[in-house]
Amino acid sequence: MNYTMLTDFYEITMANGYLECGMGDRIAYFDMFFRQAPDEAGFAIMAGVEQLIEYLKGLKFTKDDIDYLREKNMFCEEFLNYLENFEFKCDVWAIPEGTPIFPGEPLVTVRGPIIQAQFIETMILLTVNHQSLIATKSNRIVRAADGIPVMEFGSRRAQGYDGAIYGSRAAYIGGVAGTACTISERMFDIPALGTMAHSWVQSFDSEYEAFRAYAECYPENCTLLVDTYNVLKSGIPNAIRVFNEVLKPKGITKCGIRIDSGDITYLSKKARKMLDDAGWTEAAVCASNSLDEYIIRDILQQGARIDSFGVGERLITSKSEPVFGGVYKLVAIEHGGEIIPKIKISENVQKITNPYFKKVVRLYSKETGMAIADVLTAYDEKIDDTEPYEIFDPQNTWKRKRVTDFNAVELQIPIFKNGKQVYSPPSLKEIRAYAEKELGLIWDEVKRFENPHTYYVDLSQKLWDIRYNLLKSYNA
Q1: How many Å apart are CA 246 and CA 407, to the nearest integer?
Q2: Could you confirm whether domain 137-316 is CATH 3.20.20.70?
Q3: Homologous superfamily of 9-119+325-474 in CATH?
Q4: For the whole model, what pTM was predicted?
Q5: CA-CA 20 to 30 A from 373: which of 39, 79, 288, 393?
Q6: Domain ranges across the chain
Q7: How many Å apart are CA 8 and CA 10, to the nearest integer?
């Protein structure tokens, strides 16, 4: 499907207006950023860049698109001709997928003709917002599981088929072990995992017959759903019987059960004891049933004996906070070769934008390797990490810290230059490994579920001065 027309209608009307006002070729700079992490978390995880690249590479307006717009009787022929011969000419920078990200930082920066830079707003937001949301939520759940594998079971409850497919991709970046979504394995090489449904058990004359038939079909991947009727009185006893009759003669010891309802803590403890007493010490216990990070954390603290989790709707929809509030704002224009900063002012301080063409620089401690702070700088600044560097709170400027013995790393990388792709995305497995490594460089205090430490995102003195002078000029 051609997604070029997946825009807010105002992006088309503004594009036409820019052209009619003689501003279509004016070079503009836009930043995509977010103001607050979901679930009041201390950070989020960047995702969706590969799909953004695919969208930008495929930008084209079909004859049907042009005919539709012409029928609206709102757009000049010059604009429609422009779209008919459309050629993407923007420069685009993005923070790589899997990177921990923080409020206020430019995740994606676009420089190019304003008619084009404005037009791609919706798809940038849609792509990065959705996958960053699910990658962030899944990572919270994975961290709550504390090393116990988590499987993404949310396809049937996702917000549409794209939500299922790209949600599973984002969840894998966040750390899940696999997905129930079969097409995602084919598209992204994410391990497809699954057991059986209650309907399988109900389809046979007895639970025992259902378990036995499944074990005979899949002896090497035999995980039995034991809660269709009664977990402790029939489900586990029948599972043990089938393991003994079908798997044991084949020398197979790797098998498992899944509990999908009831008191998971209590049932898993009982199940573990029953399996161990029967000699099936290697049989795994999987738990599902509307789980999230808080439930998983609580049941593990209560001593639940779980070997893997299946998490569905609360992961794939990020049920606790289903919106990643990324926005896309104009931050500068070019005039006569000079970059002119632009700012949006609001009585809500959080909504005042950071103007100008800028970079995101992460400071890492040479001693510990851990991230110290992020600094937004003007595009032409370079932080010299051979010298001490002072960071300060942009709102409470008296809060200052002198950083020494650090490495300064620019986070954004170019992905398009003059409309041409200049970046090849890594494989999904590489992104996942990178995310795990980079998250290991963020202090645990920032990763707390409740009341996380606020990670420093500061402005360079030059960028702060630009912002302050703009605010001052508009309030003069």
Answers
A1: 59
A2: yes
A3: nicotinate phosphoribosyltransferase (3.20.140.10)
A4: 0.96
A5: 39
A6: 9-119+325-474, 137-316
A7: 5
